Please model this.
Amino acid sequence: MSYQEPAAKDRPPLAALPATSQDTSEETPWPLSHFSGKLRAHIDRVTPTWVEGQLVEFTMRNGNAWMTLRDLEQEISFQAVAWRNVASGLSRKGLEPGSRVVALVKPSLWEKSGRLSLVTQKMEPVGLGDLLARIERMKQQLAAEGLFDSSRKKPLPLLPATIGIITGRDSDAKKDILRNVTARWAAARFELREVSTQGPMAPIEVAAALEQLDTLEHVEVIVIARGGGALEEVVLPFSDERLIRAVAAAQTPVISAIGHEADRPLLDEVADVRASTPTGSAKLLVPEEAAEREDIALSRSRMSQGLERMLAREAEWLRAARSRPVLAHPETMIQVRSEDLLGLRRRALVSAQTAVDRARDWVRSARVQVTSLSPQSTLDRGYAVVQHQRRIVRSAADLVPGDGVQVMVAHGEFSADVTDVKEDPDE
Model:
């Protein structure tokens, strides 16, 4: 079903209209004038707000100032108006297109055309001194966060595989770095990112290029370079908080090479190393090839001389060692040891023979003693051993006449009968 605009006489009275926008529908819409009134009432409740931007248009007409304010970084703009009582003061402040300003504005809707404009209540130009004071306050804040601490600084590689360079498009700074680095080290390789290095978009483009180079593994150091220029062109873009935090978060060492000695941007504070100029950064990036070759040649000469001295000392030591008797006539050592061995053998034989002779004499003496103490020796002297019932008779009282005994003499045995027993009167 297509929607048809109702005639004026068919429109419901305001009391019958939906109270809120959520209650509207295809059957119960708001008249555009009613919607415009609601929107203006809503906008009128917005409190005055301080905003910052660039004044791109400024025209005085009938005592009123008609202006256009644009964002410093993005393509966003608003129409602004300053009525007579405010506009007279603005003209005396020397405001003109291109000025950077801060303004206290309150949005207003012109219902008939639906045009939104900013009614300016106050407007002040932002001077260089104000910007520098703002940078100084931000510097103190970032320093308190530790972004400038020396402990966060990363060392530069001795000889980077690839050097990342962020600089202006076809700028002298880029040419100086490439020329001087190549002159010092012919094999140097580069990753170039050409961006805007002045103006409102400079910090955003530089930070984006930095994040891109930081993700490349073969890039081992990054240089952010810009040549000299006016204070606002050099200090302001490279003191932007977003750029400073991007440098602090980078994993790759960063060199700041901004050619402005009088006032240092905050990039110099957060960078791992500061070069006074883009040309000076070449000395930090790579060593001088000629000097390195000279050092290598000198080191090789010193090593060669040291090796020759060591060989000479070792050769002299070998000559002295060969002249010693033990090496000049090595058979002498064998002869001495042979004589020592023969002497030891003779001493061993004599000692063994002496021990054997002593043992033989001891055995002979022991045999004589044992023999003299044996029962056979006693029998040889005429004694006899008498046994009765297989027991040796030690006393005559152990026998009675008629007992048979066995008598052992020196040579043989015989049996006998006891005919008489005589006892020892002392028992």
Observations:
- The first strand starts at residue 49 and ends at 61.
- Residues 378-417 form one domain.
- The CA atoms of residues 41 and 109 lie 9 Å apart.
- The chain has a mean pLDDT of 83.
